[in-house]
Please model this.
Amino acid sequence: MQFCLLAIGVFSLVVGVHSFAEYQHPPAYLCPEFGLYPCNCTKESDEGIVVVCENTNLASMSVGLKQSKVKIANLTIINCNIERLYGDVFRSNEVTKIVIEDTPIRSIENDTFIEVGEFIEELILKNTRLETFPYGALQSLSKVHTIKIDNSDLEEIPPNAFK
Model:
């Protein structure tokens, strides 16, 4: 009887250890080894990495983002000193979601989303100083399903904005 209980106990321990020690594969997308300064890679996943750019400017952020050679699932730009979003800042990246928050952006130029626009599915602008609807820039967003502009200086959205 004691041998039977001992055998059951050992079996339970082996099964418990086996299920605990199950192999977890690494995420498909890993943070760059040498970083994205001044931005930070905060999470790795099978959908892409998560990047946060905080308290920086457009030129520095552009240099940091160019260091990423992997898909970015979520790019958050927060409290940055950027009034005009333009140029090739995102051009070398495959970004699925961009969140710009608490950043005084007044304008988004037509060339901003060239090339990356085929990947962006969500664009969220919160607490910006956006004055005019960036109709020209948004024309590059061929896959976007969500555009959220919350708390900006926009007075109107043109009637043909989403055609």
In short: Confidence is low (pLDDT under 50) at residues 3-18. DSSP finds three helices and eight strands in the chain.
